[in-house]
């Protein structure tokens, strides 16, 4: 009798091509047919200080293979639930084409990828890259109905124009707030010396933002924090890895001490998916060269996989 150990095809995490979660690669975007489509956006020319997030998609994909032993999903004994079993189809679209130094064309190519995922009826999940890649992600939702932005981040990212730049990684939430189909923003984890001056906070609130620091969020707890999002809102989730404390996520260009720990964010996301439909996701600012341990990329992969598990577990059947 031949068993699987004799075939040489165990497909262990360290073997083969590092697509996200070792899911199938689909290079022809016109043929997408999946519940979730992963897009890499390896662009970091919007960075104001430490570059390196262009290598984020590659690092997060490789880290995600750690969770791809193929046990038909992941059983969580605390929740007594199995997440991301074979009923949820995930494909990897590869990366949007990035043109060095050309923000406009690079952003256009990212937008094209997200639009392709939406046209196929898949949940778009974009891995950055710096936070400017959120701008084309949100642009892609034009004509897709209203969305509310839930941002988990250390920085407000609400700069209008700085040094003539409108589409860098300090601008995405301002650009989002200007969209008629963005009904508001919930900005969680904002702290310390930030990316936006005092008047920017006033502008954000005037344009529909609810801003919470890490300490305010912890004092409220996950349920009360999520209650602040308008009831029935369809949400787009954008996660900057610097929302986490650099003690667990040092691999980022703008670390900010005093950030969230893992379960702070995990419990927020789980509560969010119980109350709201998630229309799209991006996770940004993983810069792996600043973390030789690889822990930051592993954290990013684990957060994304858990978030996807929560979304499909809580979706009405």
How would you sum up this structure, described in words?
This protein is of the alpha/beta class and 317 residues long. The chain has one domain (4-314): Ureohydrolase domain (Arginase, Chain A, 3-Layer(aba) Sandwich), CATH 3.40.800.10. It is 30% helix and 18% strand. It has eight helices and eleven strands. The strands form two sheets. The protein has a nine-stranded parallel beta sheet, with helices on both faces. Strands 3-4 form a two-stranded antiparallel sheet. Strand 7 (147-152), helix 4 (172-177) and strand 8 (182-188) form a beta-alpha-beta unit. Helix 1 crosses helix 8 (295-314), helix 6 runs parallel beside helix 7 (262-275) and helix 7 packs parallel to helix 8 (295-314). The longest helix has 20 residues, at 295-314. It is globular, with a radius of gyration of 19 Å. The mean pLDDT is 94.
What keyword list fits this structure?
globular, 317 residues, alpha/beta, 30% helix, two-stranded antiparallel ribbon, Arginase, Chain A
Distance between the termini: 41 Å
CATH architecture: 3-Layer(aba) Sandwich
Q: What is the count of distinct domains? A: 1
Q: How much strand content do the residues show?
A: 15-25%
Tell me the major beta sheet: 9 strands, parallel
* CATH class category name: Alpha Beta
The global form is globular
> How many β-strand stretches?
11
Give the topology string: H per helix, E per strand. Answer: EEHEEEHEHEHEHEHEHEH
CATH topology: Arginase, Chain A
Helix content: 25-40%
Cα gyration radius (Å): 19 Å
| Helix run count | 8
**CATH homologous superfamily label:** Ureohydrolase domain
- What is the overall pLDDT average? 94
User: Which class of secondary structure composition applies to the elements?
Assistant: alpha/beta
Low-confidence stretches: none
Give the neighbour order of strands across the main sheet: 1-5-2-6-11-10-7-8-9
